Amino acid sequence: MLKNFFLLCSGADIPVLQQCSAGEQNKFVGIGATIFFTAVMAFLTASYALFTVFDTVYIAICFGLLWGLLVFNLDRFIVATMHKRDSFWQAFWQATPRLFMAIIIAVVIAKPLELKIFEKEINQVLLEKKNTLFLANKEQIALQFTPQINAKQKEITELKNEILQKENEVNSLYATYIAEAEGKAGTKLLGKGPVYKEKREKHDAALLALEQLQSRNEQKILEKESAIKKLQEQQEQQEIQTAPIVSNFDGLMARIEALGTLPYLPSLFIFLLFLMVETAPIVTKLIASKSEYDFKVAANLYQVQMQTEMNMHRTQNIATATKTTDTKLYDFLVKDKAFLEQKQKAVRKSMESYI
C-alpha cells in the first residue's frame, strides 16, 4: 500500500509502470517519496513561518497544510511532465524552467527552517534591535515634550531669580539702616534719627514688596511645576503606549532581516541541502538514460499519435470522396435538367404544329 502511495506521488503512469520491472518501480517509489517528504517539510516550515505572523496554531496549521499540498502538487507536476528526449540538450532545455521553479521552492522551504534553527541567535539580534528602537523611541517622544518642559523650567528659574534679587535688595536695605543706627555708615551718628527712619521705611516697603512678590511668584511656580508634571506624565504615557509596538518587533520580516545579519555560510548549506532534495528527481531524470518505462510511454504516445493521424487521414478521405460524389451528382442533375428542357421545347413545337 505504501509503495502504491509513493508511486501515485511520483506522478508516473501507474498502469504502464506496473508492466515494468521491480527495479524500475522502485526508482519511481524513491521519486515519489522525495516529493512526499518535501511537501511534508514545506508544511512544517510554512506552519512555523505563519505562526510567527498570526500567533495562532490553528490558522498556521491550516495555511501550512494548504501550502504543503500546493508544493506537493507542483513538484508532482514538474516531475510528471518531464519526458526523455533523444538529445541531452533537448532534455536540458525542457528541464530548465522546471529547475528554476524547483530553486524557488527550495528557497521558500529553506528560509522558515533557517529561522527555526537559528532562533536563539535571531532572538539575540532582535533583542539588541528592540533596545535600540526603544531608546530611539524615547528620544523621539522626548523631542516632543522636552522643549515645553525646558521652557517651563526656564520660567521657574526666572521667577526664583526675581525673588532672589528682591531678597538681596531687602538685605542690602536692612544692612544700610542697621549701619545708620549703629553710626557705622551714613551720618555716622549713633541712634535712630530721621535718616534712620527714612532708611527703615525704604526697607519695610521693600520687605512688603518682597512678600507680595514671593506670594505671587510661588503661585506661578506651583502652576508651572504642575504643568511640567503633566507633560512628564503625558511623555511617560506615550512611552507606555508605544512600548508594545517595539516589543512586538519580532514578526516574519524582522526575523528574516535579523537572519541576514548572521554568518551566511550555515544558511547557504541549509539552502543547498533543500535545493539538492528538490532538484534530485529532475536531475535524475535528466542525466539517466532511457529506461523501460520511458520506452513504454514513448510507444504508447507513438501509438496514440499514429491512431490519431490515421483517423485524421480517414476523415480527410471521406470528406474528399463525399465532395467528389456531390460534384458528380450536381453535374448529372444539371445535364439532366438541360435534357428535360429540350424535350419540353420539342413537345411544345409538336403541339403547336399540330394545332
Query: Fraction of residues in helices?
Result: over 70%
Number of domains: 2
- SSE arrangement, N to C: HHHHHHHHHH
Number of strands: 0
Structural class: mainly alpha
Gross morphology? elongated
How many H/I helices?
A: 10
Stretches where pLDDT is under 50 for at least 5 consecutive residues are none
Describe this structure in words.
With 355 residues, the chain is mainly α. The protein has two domains: 2-118 and 263-304, no CATH class; 125-247. The protein has helices spanning 2-10, 14-17, 22-54, 57-80, 88-117, 119-182, 194-247, 252-260, 264-287, 292-354. Helix 3 packs across helix 5 and helix 6 (119-182) runs antiparallel to helix 7. The chain is elongated and about 175 Å long. The N and C termini lie far apart (102 Å). The model has no long low-confidence stretch (mean pLDDT 78).
Tell me the layout of helices and strands.
Blueprint: H1 2-10, H2 14-17, H3 22-54, H4 57-80, H5 88-117, H6 119-182, H7 194-247, H8 252-260, H9 264-287, H10 292-354
Short description:
By secondary structure, the chain is an all-alpha fold. It contains ten helices and no strands.
What key phrases describe this protein's structure?
355 residues; mainly alpha; 10 helices
